[in-house]
Amino acid sequence: MTDATKNRRKFLKTAAIGTAAVGVGTIAMPNVSRAQTVTWRFQSTWPQRDIFHEFAQDYVRRVNEMGGTRLRLDLLAAGAVVGAFQLVDAVSAGALDGGHGVAAYWYGKNKAASLFGTAAPLGWTANEMLGWIHYGGGQDLYNDLMRNQLRLRTQSFFTGPMPSQPFGWFRREITDAAQLRGLRYRTVGLAADLYQAMGVAVTILPGGEVVPAMDRGLIDAAEFNNPSSDRVLGFPDVSKLYYLQSYHQALECFEVQFNLQKFDALAAEQKAVLRYAAEAASADMSWKAMDRYSKDLGEMRATQGVRAIKTPDSVLQAQLAAWNTVISSLSADPFFKRVVDSQLAWSERVVGFRREYEVSTEVAFRHFFPNRT
Q1: Strands 38-44 and 98-101, sheet pairing
Q2: Kindly report the CA angle at 87 between 83 and 89, in degrees rounded to 5?
Q3: What pTM, to 2 d.p., does this model score?
Q4: Residue 109 CA: distances (Å) to CA of 120, 145, 189, 217
Q5: In what order do the strands lie in the sheet with 154-162?
């Protein structure tokens, strides 16, 4: 056999082995990477015109852009399939694949749910509460609540830190906490217990129903969340008295949730898209809120005759006293107490660190803007 023939046979043999190896490698690759697009129905708990629905859209856009041809969410507004307060049941049952809301909306199932949305004002910010959820054991506690206490099959990611919510919109001026007794007032979550402890006649309504109820005189006052939402929902059309600052919901965050069985069936990279899109949307939402909330408050003052008034100190102090009552009473439930104790430990350490470590922003602001009250 000539050298040329030997070399030719050696080349063909090597090529055949290489081709076989490529074939084996192709077979070994996960089939899921070439699977068809997963498209899920994803409903928010917000009216389509509300900035909260826009925040849900921002999350969905991130998922769809990162998911490429593998994963897509189709966003629906509140009521498209179920009402806002029925979202978690629909997701758990698989009637919806996922949704965007707040944990306080599941307060009617277990009051501890509100601790993961509208928690007690322990001196912490909403972003510090998100820190507790991600690094202080909050996520595990919530999983326990939903899956073991409530037997709901959901996977949740918390996102979007919200600043302190206004005391709300009133038909008449409030100068003292005593005026709240008997007042018909809309709120949700643990704030309902708080105001009931203060003698308020509480009505629990989803966001889209609040202004119509106030317009028809069914309630005397209401809070929703922020200047942008309040403005677009029409609060300035039914009231001109807007009280800012409150401890009833001094911090809150959004919840993105999915049907657990469907989530578990996803490929690892698809799960990562849903998780990390929530983190990315959380940061963007906090920045967008700074811009939009401040502009809309200014516009309501300038063009709609809204009077933005600081909530009286007597009301704020009464709210804090009522929180003591609510926490003490509801801590008779062992799970509720376990969550509150975890939050107290986190807040004492983290907020204690912040107060000791960070310089005062208030002192600096007064220095550079001495004419601002």
Answers
A1: parallel
A2: 120
A3: 0.87
A4: 19, 10, 11, 29
A5: 71-76, 38-44, 98-101, 252-259, 154-162
Q: Reduced to 3 states, what is the DSSP secondary structure of residue 244? A: strand
Q: Which CATH superfamily is domain 168-250+306-347 in?
A: Periplasmic binding protein-like II (3.40.190.10)
b (16+ CB within 10 A) / e for 103-122: bbbbbebbbbbbbbbbbbbb
Fold of the 35-161+252-290 domain: D-Maltodextrin-Binding Protein; domain 2 (3.40.190)
**Domain coordinates of the chain in residue numbers?**
35-161+252-290, 168-250+306-347
Among candidates 136, 112, 113, which has minimal Cα distance to 124? 136
Q: Rounded to an integer, what distance in angstroms lies between the CA atom of residue 83 and that of residue 88?
A: 10
pLDDT value of residue 311? 97
For the stretch 302-349, pLDDT in tens is 999 999 999 999 999 999 999 999 999 999 999 999 999 999 999 999
Distance CA 117, CA 103 (A): 5
- The strand pairing partners of 46, in sequence order, are none
Return the number of other C-beta atoms located less than 10 Å from residue 15's C-beta: 10
Return the amino acid letter for 240.
K
> What confidence tier does 33 reach under pLDDT thresholds 50, 70, 90?
very low
- The span from the CA of 239 to the CA of 259, in Å, is 40
pLDDT digits (tens, 9 = 90+) for 164-193: 999 999 999 999 999 999 999 999 899 999
Give me 114's structure tokens. Answer: 């509100």
Q: Do domains 35-161+252-290 and 168-250+306-347 have the same CATH topology?
A: yes
Give the span between the Cα atoms of 281 and 55, in whole angstroms.
Answer: 8
Cβ neighbours for 298, distance < 8 A, ≥ 6 positions apart: none
**Per-residue pLDDT at 205:** 86
